[in-house]
Request: fold
Amino acid sequence: MPIYYDMPLWRPPSEGRNLIIQATIGCSYNRCSFCSNYASKHFQMRPLEEVFHDIDVARREWPEADRVFLADGDAFMLPTDHLHRILDKLHASLPELTRVTAYATPDNVNRKSADELASLRARKLSLIYLGIESGDGEILKRIAKGASPGGIAKAITRAHDANIRVSAMVILGLGGRALSGQHIDATIALVNKAPPTYLSTLQLDLGRAEEPGFLARWGEPFEPLDDFAILHEQTRLIAGLNPPSPIIFRSNHASNALPLAGTLPKDRERLLSAIGQAQFGGIGVRPGFLRGL
Reply:
């Protein structure tokens, strides 16, 4: 039997060429109003024997695999001893394994002790993908994020202390026109306080599945931003980030109007110049039909 995947299967852009092992089905939280990725799934921890079967298949068919992403929505929520067994099996089965990654919520991280985090890092779980979405507490409540700015900063810091890198996501346009300024200003403050290793922007794009729930929770008319206003948010974000350690910045997710890549603060002026050219000349802006989540 081949490796089992409960579709749809979601993974970060940087995991596109890596081995994916589905350790959970769905998302254990699954209440963020902007996301419907796991709406069709009932959350469950896959039995270890099923996960081990998939790892055995990978050992036969892709023995040289060196990077593994643990799906689904927040496999980092698994009990630490359960994760230990999966990581030990991966290590024993894939001799070239260099890293394991997973999506995580701030609560997933903050529920684990420092010793637990260190033990996972020792077993090569060396990077997690964590959604900041916004640094503003009011917006986080309106989107039912299930996390506070303080809790998000704490999770990033605790992962960093355990030598687990964090790839964090921010959603441009999430505050609409009314809350755009506080969305970006609060996000700058959070990232400068607790800098992740990687920071990526996504662009809010409410589909038919997300829009009714999102608007119902918002509590007032929501005016979405056009590309010009989104790029203004991008400018404000990049201009304001002054982290104590360098951040690798990307806007390579398919939802973005403008793909960018650089390191902050070193590449700040180059990135701001690229955004300016896109705002006023349309240079490099991705056509709408090529965008999506």
In short: Residues 52 and 86 are 7 Å apart (CA to CA). The domain at 13-282 is CATH 3.20.20.70 (TIM Barrel).
